[in-house]
Amino acid sequence: MRQWLFVIAGILIAAGTIFIVVSRTPEDRTVLSDDGRVTLLGSFDSTQSVALSTLPTSTAPFTAVVGPVYQLLPDHLSFTRDSQLSMKYSDLGISAMDAYRLQIGWYDDSITMWQPLDSDVDPSRGLVTANIRQFARYALLLPGQVARPNLEQETQKLIDAPPAGAVGYETFVGYATAPGDYVLLPGLGKSGGCAGKFVTGENGKPTMLTSMSVHFGDHLDYEVVARWQIGSGCQGLAVIE
Questions:
Q1: Of 141, 174, 198, which residue constitutes the final position of a domain?
Q2: How many CA atoms lie within 13 A of 139 on its CB side?
Q3: How many degrees, rounded to 5, is the angle at CA 217 between CA 215 and CA 221?
Q4: Would you write out the chain's pLDDT as a tens digit for each of its 241 residues?
Q5: Does the predicted TM-score (pTM) go above 0.85?
Q6: Which residue, of 141, 169, 196, is where some domain finishes?
Q7: For residue 155, what is the enclosing H or E element?
Q8: How many beta carbons lie within 10 A of that of residue 119, not counting itself?
Q9: Does residue 125 share a domain with residue 39?
């Protein structure tokens, strides 16, 4: 049911005018993907058009993606609280053992990597569920059991060569078995300066990426990415020395 909140903001007695401010209260809604395999339970304005669109099948290999990739639209919208995304896997030929390793992931354009999310697997329903906050691309991931090498030296090389105007940084490490398709390895990143204390990429606070690729074995690449805060935004915090 659509809910309206009518607030009398002010009365201009001389003109005899009443100003009314109208705000829409977010409502719980259910959105299905166009192929019926993905369900979103979220809270947003009922007049807002929200869609889960299946992206065209790519002929390029993926590192960890299994099944289709979905775009949650519109990409400029944001949730007022965590929303729940559920994806079917029962028709993807995933073994019972591998099913427990499935995670929902979203593609983070700001670091050009897939980010796995904490996910719950329900084998009785063939579903994987996670809480999400971003309007982005989503897919089921079957993360590889790969080595977590010590990339301290490579990370430090990036940190020691900041771009002009950098005041803060965050670093990330990802792995790839397919060219350029990196998946984040959580827990290997660093931050410094005023990193994490600003909104990236918006409100006049630009960012910049630098990266370094490292090859391990015959079919595995790692990449270290530094996301730099350029210019203002530190709000009195320490900057890079």
A1: 141
A2: 24
A3: 35
A4: 333 333 333 333 333 433 333 335 677 889 999 999 999 998 877 677 888 899 987 778 899 999 999 999 887 676 778 899 999 999 899 999 999 999 999 999 889 999 999 999 999 999 999 999 889 999 999 998 888 888 999 999 998 988 888 888 889 999 999 988 999 999 898 888 775 554 444 444 567 888 888 876 667 899 999 988 887 656 555 555 4
A5: no
A6: 141
A7: helix 152-159
A8: 20
A9: yes
